[in-house]
Amino acid sequence: MSRCAAEFRRSIVTRGPFRASQIGEALAIKFMAQGGDIPGLGPETYSRWRASTIGTITDTLQRRLILELLGDVRGRSVLDVGCGDGDLAVELWKRGANVTGIDVSREMIEAARSRARREGAEIEFIVAPAEGIPFASERFDIVAAVTILCFVENAAPVFAEIARVLRPGGRLVIGELGKWSSWAAARRIRAWLGSQLWRRGRFRTARELQGLAAQAGLTAGPVRGAIYYPRWQAAARLLARWDDAFSRFTSFGAAFLALSATKPSDG
What we know:
About 45% of the residues lie in helices and about 20% in strands. By secondary structure, it is of the alpha/beta class. The protein is globular and about 45 Å long.
């Protein structure tokens, strides 16, 4: 188990029962599972978040942006890195992709396999870390990675591994927690107030994501944003309709950033 995960476990013990609303959305919890399975945390966290009003709105907007950037995946080989409970992987399979999912959490992988069985989806799910993808080089047409870096200090090895398994001309679509948003500000305040979880949080700017992609030899496109409203249900209901317009104007202020980057073709 990672030091992050160990600290988070201690915070649960000392601060009482876990509630998703105490630390943000379920996407952040997924990263704590990247150090291994943590008692009391798992796929049910996703379910609670998606069942809430603000969770439903937020997850829908993030998913819409990721799917837009992924484009037509029919017949493409897709790797979902940090696949969690398999929700995105199954959606991509329904859209005609040949999907493989990896996640370091065994509990998440079991949940993903259960989801795939329920849907009749032919998807291979494997327990594996993002910095050690267990596939040959140039294996995949597309790599999707959603919120896998927000507790990773050095993201360069993850980008390097993703670039390695992409075929020439292949694309990475990655979504991460944005640095300049009211959501990130609230998390930083929690860190200042002693949150062991968010003291280790890493929020990235659009330029940082583009730089990481370039360092890995990928050609980065523009960064798009989503979730411009504060973490408040009434605000989400009121402002969600304008999210796409904000996204096309600027990524500043977005709680969620998404980047598409391409691996140059040979020659």
